[in-house]
Backbone:
């Protein structure tokens, strides 16, 4: 209750905070990262004659009105502010962080293996290995949570709001139901924290991740390049061996495809190595690009308003429970 009252008291500040977040370096949805993503698109535009045939100018290719003014995109812009507001309410109280989990796991591991480091290594080696291990385990946590969202009908009902987007812009990344968001954040916290705890056991308590503005440095590199293009109309495909490692924008666009053969594929966040390992990888092809349509088919028309994004999953989950009563009311034929 106290948390709720604090939330109400801070409401105007929080709304303003949603605007400020567009300019703060610790927010992944800030103008700087959006601009660096635009530079990637410009580089692709100038380097590829085939891409240049798809639009009359770089501006028309980068910001097509048919995408950015589509009703689905307009809903995503409105939702961006609502999502950040709602997130304040649950994120600090219902999500475990990697550091919390790492410290808890580290205590148990040192009870079993002792408190001395198992391996002596230079500071740079420890930093590099810990950064990679944390990144891989965070990715595994995301993959597991995302698989759950697609495989378990209860969670799919909430994740469906994200997949109902008919066009994609960077704001689509915020079209996430709080249930969905909490599942991902907790799974990433647990898996990332476990990875960090293992490094602390192997190299000693001083084992740390190399971070830039609080982000794992590998994730930060992804943030500057591909992150915002995952939710966009810009097709940049990693193929061959790289297509088995990196989640290129095209990988995630295929994940959003309404074609049955693409359902439940490319579940990773920045990488697809766990998809490769567990059989959910779909490396993008030119044929995929030609036939790509985003969404969940006719059911996508259900998600037209902000309340549809937040309330409709609960309504749809409860609907089967009401159905038997309604069937009784129907006259027998
Ligand atoms: Zn998904
Ligand atoms: Zn997505």
Residues:
């Amino acid at each position: 209750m106290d948390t709720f009252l604090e939330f109400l008291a801070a409401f105007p500040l929080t709304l303003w905070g949603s605007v400020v977040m567009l300019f703060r370096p610790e927010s992944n949805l800030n103008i700087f990262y959006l601009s660096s993503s635009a530079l990637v698109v410009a580089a692709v535009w100038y380097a590829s004659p085939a891409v240049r045939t798809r639009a009359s100018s770089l501006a028309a290719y980068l910001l097509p009105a048919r995408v950015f003014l589509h009703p689905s995109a307009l809903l995503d812009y409105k939702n961006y502010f609502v999502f950040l507001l709602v997130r304040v309410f649950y994120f600090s109280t219902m999500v475990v962080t990697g550091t919390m989990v790492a410290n808890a796991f580290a205590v148990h591991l040192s009870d079993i293996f002792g408190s001395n480091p198992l391996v002596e290594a230079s500071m740079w080696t420890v930093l590099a290995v810990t950064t990679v291990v944390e990144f891989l385990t965070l990715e595994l946590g995301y993959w597991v949570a995302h698989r759950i969202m697609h495989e378990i009908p209860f969670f799919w009902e909430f994740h469906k709001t994200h997949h109902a987007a008919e066009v994609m812009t960077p704001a689509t990344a915020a079209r996430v139901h709080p249930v969905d968001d909490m599942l991902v954040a907790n799974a990433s916290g647990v898996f990332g924290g476990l990875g960090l705890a293992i490094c602390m056991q192997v190299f000693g308590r001083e084992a740390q991740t190399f971070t830039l503005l609080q982000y794992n440095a590998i994730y930060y590199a992804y943030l500057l390049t591909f992150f915002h293009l995952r939710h966009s109309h810009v097709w940049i495909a990693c193929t061959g061996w790289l297509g088995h490692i990196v989640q290129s924008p095209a990988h995630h666009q295929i994940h959003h495809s309404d074609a049955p053969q693409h359902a439940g594929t490319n579940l990773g966040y920045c990488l697809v190595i766990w998809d490769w390992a567990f059989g959910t990888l779909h490396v993008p092809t030119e044929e995929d690009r030609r036939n790509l349509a985003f969404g969940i088919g006719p059911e996508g028309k259900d998600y037209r308003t902000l309340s549809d994004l937040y309330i409709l999953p609960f309504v749809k989950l409860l609907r089967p429970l009401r159905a038997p009563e309604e069937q009784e009311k129907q006259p027998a034929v």
